[in-house]
Amino acid sequence: MIVFTAPSEVPSGFGRSIAAIGKFDGVHLGHRAIIDRARRRASGSGRKVVAVTFDRNPLHTLRPGACAADLIGPAQKLRLLEDAGADATLMLPFDETLAAMEAHRFVTAVLVDALRVDSVLVGGDFRFGRGGVGDPSLLSDMGESLGFAVDVVDDVVLADAGRRVSSTWIRDLLAEGDVEAAARLLGRPPALWGRVADADSRQARRGLVTVQLTTDVLGFVPRPGLYAGSLARRHGARPRGRGQSVLVDIAAPSTRPGHGALRLFVPEGSAAVLRGQAVELSLEAPVRRPVASGHDARSTPPPEEGFVAAARRVSDGDSPKRSRYSAANRPRCVIP
Predict the structure, then answer these.
(1) Exposed e or buried b for every residue in 116-151, given b needs 16+ CB within 10 A?
(2) pLDDT tens, position by position, 202-226
(3) 190-323: CATH number
C-alpha cells in the first residue's frame, strides 16, 4: 500500500480515485464497511481506493482533556487499512493548521486537486472543516459543483445487541476485560504492539518463564487480569511466522484507562529468542476474571485453578484457551 502524509506527496500521475474518509480509530467492522463499499465501487474501473485519515484522534488537538485512549497507533492503522483493501492511505497530521482549515479548502486541496476523486464515501457522523462545520450534506452539495459523488454509508449494527459498532463500545469492552466481545466488533482479536524487554527472564511455574513488554506499547491495554494470547515477532508492520501461545498478566496501570504493565508467561526456551524483539500480542480470551480496578495483578501469583491447565497448554505449544472468535463465528451484523 502507498502511504502519503500530505496532499503534495500525491504524484500528478496518480490517476482518479475513490476516497473513504474517517478517523478509522480501530478499523472495526463499521470502518471496514466503508472501505468495502469503496472497493466495490472501484472494482474493474482502474481507480484506486484511498483511505483519508489522520495521524491522531482530532480531539488530541481540539480538546485534549476529552480525548479517550487510542485503540490503535498510527502504524497499526496503516497495516489494518491495507488489510481492509485500501490501495493507498493519505494520513494527514491533525495539527493546528489542519484544524483551522476551512471546509471548502479541505475539499479542494485534498479531494479534488490531490486525489482527483470521482466518489467519496463517509459515515453519517463525518465532520470536516474548521469547527466541524462540514457534514455529509455539505459534502454532497460541494460534490455536485466540483464533480464527484458522495455516498454516506450507514452504521453497522450488531444484530443480537441492536447496537451500532463503535470505537467507544469497543473501548468500554476492553476496559471491562471482555476481549472476546471486543474481537466480535473489531473482526479480529484486539492486538498490542511492543517490544520484549532486554532484562533477564524470571522462572515462573509449570515450565514457563516470564518476560516483560516495555512501556511504549501501541494499542488499548485491557483491564488488569490474566488472558490467553498469541505472540508473534514483528518485522516492521507484519508478523514474522506463526504466533506462539502465551499467558498475559496485565497489571493495574496508573490512573489512565487503556494503559498497563504487561508480563508474559512463555515456554522457557522462547525467552532468549524473544528478548529485545518487536512483537505483536493478540489477546484471545480471559483465563481468570479481570481484577478490580486499582489492584496490582503482579502483587499475587495467578490462582492455581485455571492457570495450571492454561500453562500446560502453553508449554505444549497449544492455545491456552481458544477464543470464541473465528472466521466461521463472526457476529451477525446488519451491514449497509
Answers:
(1) bbbbbbbbeebebbeeeebbbebbbebbeeeebebb
(2) 665 556 788 888 878 899 999 988 8
(3) 2.40.30
